[in-house]
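pls ignore typos typing on phone
(2R)-2,3-dihydroxypropanoic acid + seq
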Amino acid sequence: MSAKPVILVTRKLPDAVENKLAEAFTPMLNPRDKLYDTEELLRLAEEADAILPCHTEKFSAETIARLPSRIQAIANFSVGVDHVDLEAARQKGVIVTNTPDVLSDATAEIAMLLMLGAARRASEGERIMRNQQWKDWSPAFMVGRQITGKRLGILGMGRVGQVVAQRGRGFGMTIHYHNRNPLDSEQASGAIYHDSVESLLANIDVLSIHCPASDATRGLIDAQRLAVMHPDSILVNTSRGAVVDDDSLVDALNSGVIAAAGLDVYNGEPDSIHPGYRELDNVFLLPHIGSATVETRDAMGYRAIDNLVAIFKGEAPGDRVA
Ligand code: DGY
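k done
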């Protein structure tokens, strides 16, 4: 029997996933969940036939060019693939896969949490409670905004965007969206299509960002576009920080161009995010936990394993992106 392919797993995965991986492969695990730098990653990759990374490992064109020729695939434990230079992978003949679908529900839950948290001033309320600053109740105390019945704008109506739309309908929200192309009427379920970002932003109360980070979307939400939004509106982002220009958003939140924001993803995360966000009361901040549920983490791992199994059988993996 030929030896099992060796898979370099860059982060600690759920035990069930690591056990399943070991059925078909020889995993090189990272039980202490150490964050490898590029040199360490490249050194460990010398022993492996494929890599199972997270978005925390960056595969620039230069890193991909230096991957040992033995590496056949980068099977990501993520739906987002902006951490991998896909063109460089194509050129080197390294297959790249992701894990779509399985995190849509979990991410949509966090999008709703951010909407509610931003609209109902959850950060301020939490802080008041934890700091023992709650001294009184009055009709004017901690008054926020309601999302029920409002217009929800989805920027990027892919898998996650469509689940968020469904959840929004549960709150009686009217769904508006902008996408490269309109959805067919069954998928759209009555959602109103806007053929430009500006048209979407001008006609909504809550914006939920679901487009991937790419050269086309980097800094898409900038000062000019924020200025189109209604002053009572709320922005939430569970996609990638790169879609938002941070200086513009911090200014907009400070000056009342928009009312509030809920963010789970950031430029420079985890430790170099825009300092302005921490100063603002009208933002509700979470640490990139959109897909962080037990169910979803397992499902992401199994999906990455399915992709690897197909690749090493010489078949087309279900989730090939390069
Ligand atoms: C994803 O899957 O892209 C999540 O953001 C975690 O990486």
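The chain has two domains: 6-102+294-312, 104-285. The first strand starts at residue 6 and ends at 9. more later
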